[in-house]
């Protein structure tokens, strides 16, 4: 992982098209501004883990439980 | 009639036993499903029934129960720029499916769908993807059976 130090209002360029700017610092939280082409996906990382976890439990659903659900949907 | 070869495959060891599928049923997920990025080929079983299955072709024991979004959340919208759907290639709005991943615990009344991560399929290009929509009003565990119905 590349580690860079930035002050407020300073930016990092990733490739030619992506800019990450440090907007503000507040005790334990920083605000980042990100400029990127529209096709680039930008998301909070923990959302990926959460969705992966949910997909994993979905795959474990039993046929019986689905049958019971179909009856009441 | 011009010769056309359609490949049939037998998936063994699925949760439905042996399953015969045809090549033209296969939907390609270039990036797989989140957490299962290696699974690139799926078929959609029962696409118009209440509960459908996204059945993996690459790993037959794996299938994801899904439900059509409008069935459980009328007015469900993707809220994204078209560019984020570019992995789907050619899109025809009349040939698209938006499915939500279902999690059903022992009590079916507590079943939920993940509104933040729909499965979007273009039937025209036969490609699919799991899209992430980080909107606060979309819960990752949205109950599909209204409370009154379950009471």
Q: Any key phrases for this structure?
A:
heterodimer; A: 73 residues; alpha+beta; three-stranded antiparallel beta sheet; 3 strands; elongated; B: 151 residues; mainly beta; nine-stranded antiparallel beta sheet; 2 helices; 11 strands; 5% helix; 34% strand; globular
Total helical segments of chain B: 2
Largest sheet of chain B: 9 strands, antiparallel
Structure summary, number of beta strands of chain B: 11
Rg measurement of chain B, Å? 16 Å
Largest sheet of chain A: 3 strands, antiparallel
What is the straight-line distance between the termini of chain A?
47 Å
Low-confidence stretches of chain A: none
Class per helix and strand makeup of chain B: mainly beta
Uncertain regions spanning at least 5 consecutive residues of chain B: none
Q: Determine Rg of chain A (CA atoms, Å).
A: 20 Å
The dominant shape of chain A is elongated
What count of helical segments of chain A does DSSP give?
2
Share of helical residues of chain A: 25-40%
SSE succession of chain A: EEEHH
Structural class of chain A: alpha+beta
Q: What level of helicity do the residues of chain B show?
A: under 10%
Please provide a brief summary of the model.
The complex is a heterodimer of chains A (about 70) and B (about 150). Chain A has about 70 residues and is α+β, with helices and mostly antiparallel strands.
